[in-house]
Write a structure and sequence with these properties.
Elements (H helix, E strand, L loop, with lengths): L6 H17 L2 H13 L2 H20 L2 H16 L2 H36 L4 H14 L3 H16 L3 H25 L3 H30 L10 H4 L2 H33 L3 H38 L2 H37 L3 H9 L1 H23 L3 H26 L1 H33 L3
């Protein structure tokens, strides 16, 4: 059931992912809007720190999406429908179980997280209030990202978009009700997002079942103990997940290092940083549309042992990614001032965010290749290389931070962060010839 590999087909597969990914941070934007407009600057700084810490749980278990996407794409390319279905039946329970475990352990995990960051007790209290509410939705969040990966892997990006639409509509409705109507403050902001995550999971499960029916129905052996617990499949899943987990933890260290550096500069800088990170997150997730398409089409070609299709998949998705990187960078420079004023009415926060807006606009232009390489490596499940590259990139980034910050002050924090994007692409690029050599050797016509 592989999609056609033309520019039109690649774009048609990518734009729903772009919209779905672009919709993902709307939850954070709505939360930021509610806090910035109706609660205050201190709470806005707190939600900024809270979002960074919550991101440890969200992105830390992002292997659920990545491994599911890559493995499903390869099974789809190989025409193994039972295994395509088995991948999601393995992934969703794992995600929900992990989310429940984190919720149970939060009484120990949150103090540990706060011990890492440099922030006032008032900001920490605000962050803790927000996180404790958001965690009610974490099991649903992790189940949902597994579903998102599966939809991407089987080239059904429209389902991922529909899932995100449901999630965001629920959040947009509930957040003002909880904050303005009920006066629930930061806890209400987080709780509205948690309810929205459960609504998103319910929508995703419905769409999953409809897709299975459209593909000929449930394969009886897809839910059999023999297939779900097959030693080879579990071993491959375990290796992929562990490598991606380590790699994601390395990236999480990098992004949290950036957040901690922002927190050390004070409340105003941290609040401005949080606004700019909303823009970076949104543009990164939009550009990830082409990286996710690369996961699907490159992964399917890899599974089908089609060398020419693999090369074409990489080329087409990368061309689109480069073009849109410059468009999104320009959009940040043009629309950034409006969004900054919308998200905060504090003149000091607005000024801080405007000062560093050009660095924010450079992020997609400099970073698109890092995201694109991620997609190619995920689709081919080259997870060991991703792990090694992720560790190397974060080490180089931290070294650059300590070298540049004394020279450039707060601007050095942003310059080092942009270097991080460059090194993520460079370190993966060093491994890319291994993939092409493998394809040439194993998948030659």
């Amino acid at each position: 059931m592989a999609m056609a590999l033309t520019r039109k087909a690649v774009f048609n597969q990518s734009w729903p992912i772009m919209l779905a990914n672009g919709a993902a941070p709307i939850v954070g934007l709505v939360d930021t809007l509610m806090v910035g407009r109706f609660i205050g600057t201190s709470a806005l700084a707190g939600i900024g720190l809270g979002a960074v810490i919550y991101g440890i749980f969200y992105w830390g278990f992002g292997f659920l999406r990545m491994s599911t996407a890559g493995l499903a794409a390869q099974s789809d390319g190989a025409g193994d429908e039972a295994e395509v279905q088995a991948h999601i039946f393995r992934a969703i329970p794992i995600g929900i179980l992990i989310g429940l475990m984190v919720m149970a352990l939060q009484v120990w995990l949150l103090p540990l997280a706060f011990s890492i960051y440099t922030a006032s007790s008032e900001i920490e209290t605000s962050a803790a209030t927000y996180i404790s509410a958001r965690l009610w939705g974490l099991p649903a969040t992790l189940g949902t990202i597994a579903l998102m990966g599966w939809f991407v892997g089987i080239s059904r990006a429209g389902h991922a978009l529909r899932l995100q639409i449901v999630l965001n509509i629920v959040n947009i409705i509930l957040s003002p009700i909880f904050v303005i109507g009920l006066g629930a403050g930061l806890y209400g902001v987080g709780l509205a997002s948690a309810f929205a995550e459960w609504a998103g999971l319910a929508a995703g499960l419905f769409l999953m079942w409809r897709e299975i029916k459209a593909r000929g129905g449930l394969r009886p052996n897809a839910v059999s103990r023999k297939l779900l617990l097959a030693k080879d499949a579990l071993s491959k899943l375990g290796v992929a997940n562990s490598n991606i987990f380590i790699r994601t933890m390395a990236l999480t260290v990098g992004f949290n290092f950036f957040g901690n550096a922002a927190a050390s500069e004070g409340e105003v800088f941290l609040a401005g940083y949080h606004i700019l990170m909303q823009m970076i997150t949104m543009t990164a997730l939009i550009l990830d549309g082409f990286a996710h398409t690369a996961e699907a089409v490159a992964g399917a070609a890899y599974g089908a042992k089609d060398r020419k299709r693999f090369s074409k998949a990489v080329r087409l998705t990368t061309e689109f990614s480069a073009g849109f990187a410059f468009l999104t960078g320009a959009a940040i420079m043009l629309g950034g001032p409006f969004l900054i004023r919308l998200l905060s009415d504090d003149p000091a926060v607005q000024q801080s965010a405007m000062t560093y807006l050009p660095y924010c606009a450079l992020a997609p232009i400099i970073g698109f290749m890092a995201w694109q390489m991620d997609g190619i490596f995920i689709g081919t499940t080259r997870t060991r290389e991703m792990r090694n590259a992720g560790i190397a990139a974060v080490i180089i980034y931290i070294a650059a931070h300590y070298a540049l910050t004394p020279l450039f002050g707060p601007a050095g924090i942003w310059i080092a962060f942009l270097i991080y994007y460059v090194m993520r692409a460079v370190t993966l690029g060093l491994y890319y010839p291994r993939i092409t050599r493998y394809v040439e050797t194993e998948y030659a016509d």
